[in-house]
Write a structure and sequence with these properties.
By secondary structure, the protein is of the alpha+beta class. 47% of the residues lie in helices and 19% in strands. The chain is built from two helices and two strands; from the N terminus they run H-H-E-E. The chain has a two-stranded antiparallel ribbon with strand order 1-2. The radius of gyration is 14 Å and the shape is elongated. The termini are far apart.
């Protein structure tokens, strides 16, 4: 089976979106998202290169 960077990026993006959706729902369920700022700041970046891949989550100043 050949390495398909488009498919790998798609899977990584789906995973990243699922993680953020779950995190946002957890914030809402716990009442921790009064202003919604953290929800708005959360993001991720998926990169697929020929010899590596990375998935980074960013929580803005909340992640410090």
């Amino acid at each position: 089976m050949a390495f398909d960077p488009v498919r790998v990026r798609e899977v990584m993006n789906n995973f990243g979106e699922n993680v953020l959706d779950t995190a946002r729902q957890n914030l809402r369920d716990r009442g921790s998202s009064v202003s919604g700022n953290l929800e708005k700041k959360m993001k991720f970046v998926a990169k697929v290169m020929p010899n590596s891949m990375s998935l980074k989550f960013d929580l803005g100043e909340y992640g410090q």
